[in-house]
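Entry:
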Amino acid sequence: MYSRLKIFTGNANKTLSAEVAKFAGTPLSEAEVFKFSNDNTFVKINENVRGADCYIIQPTCRPVNDNLMELLIMVDALKRASAERVNCVIPYFAYARSDKKDQPRVPITAKLVADLITTAGADRVIALELHSDQIQGFFNIPVDHLTSQPIFARYFRDNLDLKNTVVVSPDSGGTHRARELAARLNCTLAIGDKRRVANEDKAEILNIIGDVTDKNALLFDDIIDTGGSIIRIANTLKKKGAK
């Protein structure tokens, strides 16, 4: 098996990486990751990784393309340094909403990102709360899809009175997530009928499917960008009689 554990980080979330390394009982491994004046990303691994089991913790959050390129270049650098295995820990997977061809002449960018990570040389991906389950199938390498639901469920049970609570998914795409949480909490389920306007972030809430009258609504979603959709569905729930 792998004799040495190495944890690396890009610039996306160094604090998170440091906390994970501390929990694992190992220091963060040394690497230089920065940009030249011409905006090109440079990576140098500053310690021996030959035969090591390496983990790169790098969410591909904003700035999305910078953080994605850092991840790809770090994978390449580690493979060329003879790391035995390179694991990509991606708490936020960019372009996840582009997971299907829902209009003519549009790309499936999530598949492209999966191909880039695989081609760079990654051996395994560990992702958290992927926007859709099919993204796992975009990879030709093992994917561990982790969920935070048990943590949320435990918190809600310990801190909220759930006797008159309904779990609400803002749209049909998130129904399976909300249904699973509702089952964990022994609550009923409601679904927002949401329609996205063109290719913009703005979405229109048309209706609420399910009984929310005189109930406490627990909104559960995986991605919040501007917060506009959550605000609109909260207002709609109020109009439908939710507390």
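Residues 149-240 form a domain with the Rossmann fold fold (CATH 3.40.50.2020).
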